[in-house]
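Reply to dn_fold:

You asked what the input looked like. This is it:
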Amino acid sequence: MWGRGKNDKISCEIICSLLHSGLLLFIKKFTEMARQADADVNKPGIVTQRWQEGLEFYWEGYYSKAIPKFEEVHQN
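and this is what came back:
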């Protein structure tokens, strides 16, 4: 049952708003197009990969190796 308590994850107003705005239809169409193109939408993209690589270098103290990764993210 739909509620309006502050602990509800999704309220009826949000669902109705998404349906009205066409967002759910867009998501459905996008997902179908990605499936037809054999795109792996669950795999991190190149920007996410470079950001993670940069963070790993940074956390390990390899700042000169981290900088090019972050610069690549900034350029994309």
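Residues 1-41 form one domain.
Hope that clears it up.
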